[in-house]
Every structure is written in structure tokens, then in C-alpha cells.
Amino acid sequence: MVSLAANTEDFKHNLVSVIIPTFQNGRTIGRAIKSVLSQTYANIELIIVDNGSTKNTIQKIQSYISSDPRARLLFSPRGRSKARNTGLLSSRGLYIHFLDSDDALEKHSIEKGMSFLSTHPSYEAYVHNVAIKYSENVIHSNFRPFAIPKKFSYRKMLNSNQFPPIAVLFKNKSITPFDETLATHEDWVFWIQNLFKKKVHIDPDYVGAYYYLGNNNTVNNTFGMAVSRMQIRDRFDYLRKHSLRAFVVDLITTANIYYFASQLLSDSFALRPQSPYLKLIDRLALCVVSHRFSQCVLIKYGQRGWENLKDKQNV
């Protein structure tokens, strides 16, 4: 691992770098920026990294930050991980906090994290909880995709992502950058590479950020995320060797989703005028869907799970 900062001596004492990657988020970026610049902890720098937005969005960002010298706008090639890595390379703070451009920090968030880390130097990161919001209404402060654990567990970290990027304040020291080849779960791999076997304090009772849930958000795609997790484990040896239980959970998740989808499809068939020919076509359609599902998940990843089981028995 190498430090992404140019020189450790250049870090300002207790400065926190907040990094916001953004792409065409002109409608929500103002909320994110305001939540950072209005923090009760004032010793911050805000780095906004745009990766391909239109001129109109860039002008909006510039209008939000023009009056505060703590904020600056950078540019990167397309890609969330490329934007975050650009922000990391440019950061001058001793501490880092990520924020997505459609989310927001609670006003005491940085202060709470710094209060702990500055008095516990052996810890590398502070993790707070995240509240899921739609518009201005809190839905749930412990929504399952971001079920912040009460204690930090190395084993659980290898099984699944334990916290989203917006929940963590961590030290800017010897950071391994985001894997820019990953389309999903890049934050999970990032936390493993940077926080595994490190001391991490978790504060599950404090909601330090708000995750605004939209219709196109990836956490809504439970099936896709489960399959993606299996693909990530298939790629990385250190995950594949420790992920049998998590593999089974994801397999059950995908199987359950398929079951309910097929039941829904069957119910819709029942509402149609039936004939022997239509019934035959309907059943054939279900068979094709079932076979394709098996090809994509049960066979490919089931084989990998079987290999994991044999490896575990041979240890």
C-alpha cells in the first residue's frame, strides 16, 4: 500500500477532507454541499470531483461553493471510483470522509468522529449509523443494506460490506485506492483493503448521515446486488476463502426472489383466458426463465460454492 497524499508533513493539523464525487446531480448537490459547509466542526476542506457533468451542473456547483474558500471543484474521467481516487490524491487532510452528491451529513457528524479519533490515536476509523430518507422523511435508521454492526468484526467484513462510504471517518494514511475496474461493491473491497485488521470504532446509536433513497438506487435491486456480491467473491481469493456462509445467504436471496417472481408470473397467467395451447406456452416460458436463472446463478456460483466447501474441509 502507498499513501495517496503527496506528503504527510503537508497535512494540516486535524483537517478533515470531505470528498464528494458527482455526475449530473445538479438537483441534489446543493443539499450535500450545504451539509458539509455547515458542520459544527469547521476545520474541513470540501473536495467536489465532477466526472463528466454538463456545463449547467458545473455552474450550479460553482455557485454553491464560490463564497467558501474551504471548497474546491476538481474534474476526473467518468466513473465513481476514479472521482473518489482523484479526491484522495488531492486531499490535504489527516482524515477523510466520503459523501455522495445526493446524500447529506448530520451537522455534528464530523465533530463526533473527530472527538473520538483525536482522543483514541490507536483507532484508524470511526463509523456512525445512516438514516434512510425519502424527501425529508426518515424511513428507517437501520435499513438492512446499511445495518451498521454494533461491533466491528473482521470475519463479517469478509462476508459482506458492513457500512456505506458515507458512514466512515478514517485516517488518511497508506491508503489503497478504489479499484476502478469494479462497477459495484467497490466500497466493500476498499474497506477490506484499508481497514482489515485495523481498529475501528462503531457508534450504532448515532445517525451521522442521511441516505436519500431514490427509485434508481442500487440498494433497491436486491437480486442484482446479491449476484454482484457473488461475482466479487469469485474474483478475489481472500474473499472466496472466507465467504461460504455469505455465499449461501446470497444464493437463498436470489432463489427466493426468483420464486416470488415466478409465483407472480403464474398468478398473472391464471387471470388470462386459458386454452391448452396458452397453458403450454406459459409453462414453457417459466421453464426457460428457470433454466436461465440456473445457468446464471445456481450452476456457475453453485460450483464455486462447492469448491469453497471442499477447500474449507481441506484446511
CATH architecture of the largest domain: Alpha-Beta Complex
What's the alpha carbon Rg, rounded to whole Å? 22 Å
Provide mean pLDDT, rounded: 75
Number of strands: 9
Helix tally equals 10
3D shape: globular
CATH third-tier fold name of the largest domain = Spore Coat Polysaccharide Biosynthesis Protein SpsA, Chain A
**Subunit organisation of the chains:** single chain
Secondary-structure-based class equals alpha/beta
* Percentage of residues in helical conformation: 40-55%
CATH class category label of the largest domain: Alpha Beta
Distance between the termini: 28 Å
Largest pleated sheet? 9 strands, mixed
Measured by DSSP, the beta-strand proportion falls in 15-25%
Total number of domains: 2
Q: Secondary-structure element sequence? A: EHEHEHEEHEEHEHEHHHH
The CATH homologous superfamily name of the largest domain equals Spore Coat Polysaccharide Biosynthesis Protein SpsA, Chain A
| Uncertain segments | 141-145, 290-315
Key features of this structure:
10 helices; 9-stranded mixed β-sheet; alpha/beta; 315 residues; Spore Coat Polysaccharide Biosynthesis Protein SpsA, Chain A
